[in-house]
Every structure is written in C-alpha cells, then in structure tokens.
C-alpha cells in the first residue's frame, strides 16, 4: 500500500514502545477514521495547508497538530470521513452558501493531490485503495449547513456528501444538542423540520449521524429513520465507561447496531475519562471499544478520532502516527486479528458498502 511505503516497522515499533506485530497489523489493516476535522484548520488559519507536513504545535498536539496529509499517509490511515463543520452564527442562507464554497475547496484540495481520491461509493473506495490512494469521503458536521431548504440535501452536487451529523454543539432548527444549553427552553427532541431532514437524508442515501444529539432527539431520529438503512454515531464515548453529556448509553448503542450501523469512539480525553488537559488514555480508548463490543458485538465498534477537532488526545498516542499503540492494546487484551481489523476499519467500510455500494 502507498501509505506503507518506506515504513520501517522495527524502527516505528521501537519509537512507540510496541511490537513489530502491532505496527505491521496497523499498516496492513484497512484503517478507516469516521471523523476527521483536518479541514477545519485552513478555514481558521489563513495559509495553513493540510497537504504540507506540520508539527504538533505549541500545545503539543492539543486541540490541533494531530494530522496532516503527509502524516495520515505515513500512518497508514487508508480512508476517512473528512468533515466540513458548520458555523451556526451565520444566517441559514449564509450557511448554505458557505458550505458550497467549502465543499468546492475541499474537493479541489483532495482532487489535486496524487495520493488522495474523493470517493462517493464503496466501489470508488475500493478502486482508490487498489491504486494506493487514501479514500476521502466528505461529511457535514452540523445539518443546519443545509436547513435553509430541506430539499437542499437532495441537491448536493455529484452525491459528494456521504454523511451528515444532524446537530453539533448548539441547538438548531433541526433539534437539540447533547451539549449543555441553558438558554434553550423548548423541546429536547427533533423539530418537524428535523424529522423531514432525516427522511431527506435517507432518500439521498446520506448517512444520518447521531453524534452530539440530545437523547430525546436521538430517539426521534430512530423513530423516523428508514430502518433498512444503517444509522451511525461517528465520534462518541459510552456512558458505561465514562458518564458524560457527550456519551451514549447501552440502549443507544443497541439501537444503532440493530440497523447494521457502527459507533466510532472519539479520541478526546475528557469524553474517555482522562483529565481535560490529557493523560495516558489508550487503555480508556480500549475500554470504550470493548464495552460497545460487549453490548452489541464486534461488528459495531469503529474509530471516529475527531483528530484536529479541538480535542485533547491521549498523551500516549497524541497524533495519527501513534495509532499502533492502540493496536498493541488490542493485542494485549487477547483480541483476534479479525476483530482488530474490523475495529480499525472493516466495520466502517461495511457500513459504507450498505449505504453507498
């Protein structure tokens, strides 16, 4: 694979303090990250170029500095949902215009790079991977990017978007966020518009992502969603390991699993149960993944890192180059190779094959 070209497994194992087996398995497996926020930084910092190699920054890979294209390729991250986050402070029409500008910009960046390929179906994904390229799917974080007109979901050019996270960190016209929102006094569920929005996503075969959503709105989405299509939570933790407003409970895990979906575990320390400023949390990552498997089976646990999404990553695996540390934890826990491959990316790809063959 192109992403593995020139990788010295023994040297990488020595640097990370893991076995050569963990390094080799990480690079040989299909690694698929369900939530990557690297595109956020060129929007925030003019001149910051995601296709150039960067360091970990002044905060040592806290908040950002966790990825860039050269490091993703070196790390063997074979595919990802590249997220376009929505600014809720813009008007509805302004959000839609901004989204289309950002979509064109992100597509242009991907299509100009020889080792990236924008994919919209699992067939395109496999062709990109066979050619040694990183398969870049495009996602929206915050469905209010296109709430100006619910039919806008069906007008996204070229089926470019594979997934929409219904709500983000603020309550919107679609429904309530799981984040503390002391100013909100209305229903905690989906609005009528939010219900129609879920139906529009289903019609366009766009994955409905239930990360960030209030539990009441979560169950409203489950009710209106076409049960023949997978639901997903791309980046979350689980309450049974760390009780937190950002995490989901066992009933929610099972509801997603019953649709054939998957749950991506986030790499954010505070949601995993580590101190806010960070700690060695690879064991906690493993605990969240293990709980999902214990509840729903090994076909429904995935990675949804949220790298570069203003998160603080585990200090024993701060960047994408440290992913073999997690693989080593899986091996040490006695996980079979097939289970490890599913969690690293096989489950995510299976879901994409279901929604976008």
Question: In words, what does this structure look like?
Answer:
The protein is an alpha/beta fold and 357 residues long. It has one domain (2-355): Metal-dependent hydrolases (TIM Barrel). The chain has helices spanning 9-16, 20-28, 40-44, 69-75, 92-112, 122-130, 192-203, 215-224, 250-258, 269-272, 282-296, 324-332, 337-355; strands spanning 32-36, 62-63, 79-85, 116-118, 134-141, 161-165, 207-209, 231-236, 262-265, 301-303, 311-312. The strands form 2 sheets. Strands 1, 3, 4, 5, 6, 7, 8, 9 and 10 form a 9-stranded parallel β-sheet that branches. It has a two-stranded antiparallel sheet with strand order 2-11. Strand 7, helix 8 (215-224) and strand 8 form a beta-alpha-beta unit. It is globular and about 55 Å long. The model has no long low-confidence stretch (mean pLDDT 96).
Give a concise summary.
The protein has 357 residues and is of the alpha/beta class. Helices cover 38% and strands 13% of the residues.
């Amino acid at each position: 694979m192109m992403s593995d070209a020139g990788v010295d497994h023994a040297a990488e194992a020595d640097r990370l303090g893991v076995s050569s087996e963990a390094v080799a398995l990480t690079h040989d497996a299909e690694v698929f990250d369900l939530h990557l926020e690297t595109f956020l930084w060129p929007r925030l910092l003019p001149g910051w170029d995601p296709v150039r190699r960067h360091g970990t920054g002044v905060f040592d890979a806290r908040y950002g500095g966790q990825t860039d294209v050269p490091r993703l390729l070196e790390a063997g991250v074979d595919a990802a949902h590249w997220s376009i986050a929505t600014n809720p402070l813009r008007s509805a029409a302004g959000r839609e215009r901004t989204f289309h500008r950002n979509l064109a910009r992100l597509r242009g960046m991907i299509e100009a790079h020889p080792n990236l390929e924008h994919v919209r179906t699992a067939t395109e994904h496999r062709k990109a991977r066979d050619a040694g390229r990183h398969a870049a799917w495009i996602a929206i974080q915050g469905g209010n990017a296109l709430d100006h007109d619910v039919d806008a979901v069906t007008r996204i050019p070229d089926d470019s978007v594979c997934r929409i996270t219904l709500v983000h960190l603020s309550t919107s016209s679609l429904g309530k966020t799981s984040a503390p929102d002391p100013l909100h006094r209305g229903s905690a569920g989906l609005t009528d518009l939010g219900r129609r929005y879920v139906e529009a996503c289903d019609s366009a075969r766009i994955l409905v992502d239930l990360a960030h959503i209030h539990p009441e709105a979560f169950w409203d989405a489950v009710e209106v969603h076409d049960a023949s299509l997978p639901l997903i939570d791309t980046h979350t933790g689980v309450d049974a390991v760390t009780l937190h407003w950002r995490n989901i409970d066992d009933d929610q895990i099972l509801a997603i699993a019953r649709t054939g979906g998957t749950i991506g575990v986030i790499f954010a320390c505070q949601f995993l149960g580590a101190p806010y400023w960070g700690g060695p949390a690879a064991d906690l990552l493993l605990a969240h993944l293990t709980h999902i498997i214990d509840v729903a089976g090994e076909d429904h646990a995935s990675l949804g890192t949220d790298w570069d999404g203003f998160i603080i990553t585990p200090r024993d695996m701060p960047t994408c180059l440290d992913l073999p540390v997690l693989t080593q934890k899986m091996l040490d826990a006695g996980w079979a190779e097939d289970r490890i491959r599913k969690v690293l990316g096989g489950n995510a790809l299976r879901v994409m094959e279901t929604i976008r063959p």
